[in-house]
Amino acid sequence: MSQSIRLGFFILIGLAILGAAVFLIGDKESMFQSNLVIKAQFQNVGGLNEGADVRVGGMREGTVRHIELPHDPSGKVTVVMDVAKSTQDVLRGDSIASINSAGLLGDKFVEISFGTVEQARLKNGQTIGSQPPLEISDIAARANHLLDTAQEAVTNISAITAKINQGKGTAGALINDRTMYDQATASVSAMHDDMEALKSNFLLKGFFNKRGYVDADELKKHEISKLPPERAIKTFDYDAKAVFDKGNSAKLKNQKIFDDAGDYLQSNKFSLAVIVSSAGMKGDSDRDRTLTEARTMVVRNYLVKNFSLDDARIRTLGLGKTEQLGENGKVRIVVYPGKSASAK
Fold first, then answer.
1. Pairing relation of β-strands 272-278 and 314-320?
2. Does 202 reside within a domain?
3. Domain shared by 72 and 117, yes or no
4. Which of 59, 202, 326, 336 has the lowest CB atom count within 10 Å?
């Protein structure tokens, strides 16, 4: 191969590489695509440079062509941008241009917001609205204001603490006055004694023995107001004396007695099972109402814990002082088929 041919070959390769580079650079700078010229005016461009990115919806869709200073001090800086014509689908007359930075100290770029469907598409050379860039100095000023406010709060807290230490005000008197301290201690002690007395009543000896807190609402959590009108498909009856530890207790002494009911509920389809308890006609009405509610809940907890049941279908009904289930205390589990509207 002659020297002239080799030289011509290398020249062609060089031209090809140069052409590819020109097209790549031109594509990046949007030189070879159909562009739309858009303008926006700012009081201060905050370090924005010509050639900076123009983003639409977070995507690079153009560049800053040039930045023009105003003709007089009352004017604004004009930023002229080239953006892809394809952005006309989302850029409208009410779109807003803002100058942002990539990170706190990163390069500046222009972000143009989407417009609304009601507005007309942007035209070539149209000027859109803008919002001023956030300056680092503004951020620093706000940070200084926050620090000043925090310092003032610390100073106020220190002053309040000093007054308390000197015995001033109610809090100071409570901390520094031994008499008030003793009274407060006595009140707490009395409250503690009341709680201990409450824990020793007939319910806490049984059902609430392992709980350290009494919540009467918990007893009614799964309660229904009355039995459904439908005919039951199965009924289980138990004598309270054979089930509970004492006549005025909700503590189970023979919980295995309910296994026949649990096996039945676990093996058969049902829509609702109501655990009913009555206390006969002897005793205090309010106390017996609470007692029967606690007993139904104890039985329900045992069945739900030890058998595979849909607990939403297991409800309770404490009848209190009544002979509805007999003269003495009773527990009855009533099972219903189908759907029951009364289980609410």
1. parallel
2. no
3. yes
4. 59
Provide the CATH number for the domain around residue 298: 3.30.1330.60
pLDDT of residue 220: 80
Residue type for 205, please?
K
- Tokens, residue 59: 């995507």
Q: Where are the alpha helices (DSSP H) in 166-284?
A: 169-176, 178-199, 216-219, 240-243, 259-267
Q: pTM of the prediction?
A: 0.40
State pLDDT tens for residues 153-199.
777 777 777 766 666 666 555 555 566 556 656 665 556 555 555 54
Number of domains in the chain: 4
Please list the residues that pair with 129 across neighbouring strands.
Answer: 96
Whether residue 280 lies inside any domain: the answer is yes
Phi and psi angles of residue 247, each rounded to the nearest 5 degrees, phi first: -65, -25
Query: Has residue 329 been placed in a domain?
Result: yes
E-only strand ranges, the chain: 35-42, 53-56, 59-68, 77-84, 96-101, 108-112, 126-131, 234-239, 272-278, 314-320, 330-336
